[in-house]
Write a structure and sequence with these properties.
The protein is α/β, with parallel strands linked by helices. Helices cover 32% and strands 25% of the residues.
Length: 171
């Protein structure tokens, strides 16, 4: 039996590049922290609430999630997943497909180009002008919300979703 499932794809907010800091340990900039906090506020205001978050293990994605979580009305369980760090869209999709079916809404906090490539791969329909914006750019802190009718996450298929919205911190 298919049910509505909602996938949130959130790219980490703006990250700093301190000298002699490995990529995995790059922190958010002050602007990145503010943008992530604002995106969390936007999600809360719009009722965009995931039941589970899968977050890359990188410092910048963890920081983004921490700021977003501060604004959400309740605690969202988070799994910190190394397979989402600097990976291909197919790797992220494998993580999504492994999600338990009782979670009807899932957030993935990751990196580009994987997040944009995955969003474009999954979207078959779009509302408003969101798809053209998504195809043009997936800036730091951007959020794609994709809806599916699926029995479970393991049934997710290319072009099977509807892009409900695409929001950026500058929106």
């Amino acid at each position: 039996m298919s049910v509505m499932r909602r996938l949130f794809l959130l790219r980490h907010a703006e990250a700093d590049r301190p000298a002699n800091t490995p990529d995995h340990l790059r922190p958010l900039t002050q602007r990145g922290m503010q943008d992530a906090l604002a995106m969390g506020g936007y999600m809360a205001q719009e009722g965009l609430l995931p039941q589970l978050a899968v977050v890359s293990t990188a410092t910048r994605t963890r920081g983004t999630w921490e700021q977003v979580q501060k604004q959400l009305p309740g605690l969202v369980p988070a799994i910190f997943e190394s397979r989402v760090y600097e990976c291909q869209a197919a790797d992220i999709l494998n993580v999504i497909r492994a999600t338990a079916p009782e979670h009807h809404s899932l957030m993935v906090v990751g990196h580009n180009p994987g997040m944009q490539t995955l969003a474009l791969r999954l979207v078959g329909h779009a509302v408003r002008n969101a798809f053209s914006r998504l195809g043009h750019d997936f800036p730091p802190g951007a959020l794609a919300v994709v809806d599916f009718e699926l029995a479970g996450w393991n049934d997710i298929a290319d072009h099977g979703g509807t892009l409900e919205r695409f929001a950026t911190p500058s929106d």
